[in-house]
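INTERNAL AUDIT FORM
Audit reference: QA-55
Scope: verify that the stored structure record matches its stored sequence.
Auditor: D.O.
Record contents follow.
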Amino acid sequence: MRGRPKKKKIELNSESLVSLMQEIYNDCTEQRKRALTDINERKAMAEMDNTTDIYQVGKVNNESLKLIDSVIEKKLSLVKLQSQLMDTNDGESSAGFLSDNDKELLRDIVKEQEQKNNIKYDI
């Protein structure tokens, strides 16, 4: 695994949450980059005069594009949450300043990250 070691202990303050969200954002960026690389490699490898190859490449590329779409959606959600945390960054616990929908979104993102990376965060 590249980069910094993953943060495992998360405190309910804006600095800790922003740090975790930045890690998740970086992971999303890496996933998007890998999916685009895969699409480009498949284009180069396929024999485009064979309709079966074209169909199979298109089918697999659709899955990669769905992944890219979900990554972009997650990144936008993270940016929204980060901006709210930064707006309320006054040194106190800012988890109370998030709306219930934002808290639920953050929980979902953290759960997904735990499952994907096999890491149990201590919150």
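Auditor finding: record pair retrieved intact. Residues 28 and 71 are 6 Å apart (CA to CA).
Action required: none
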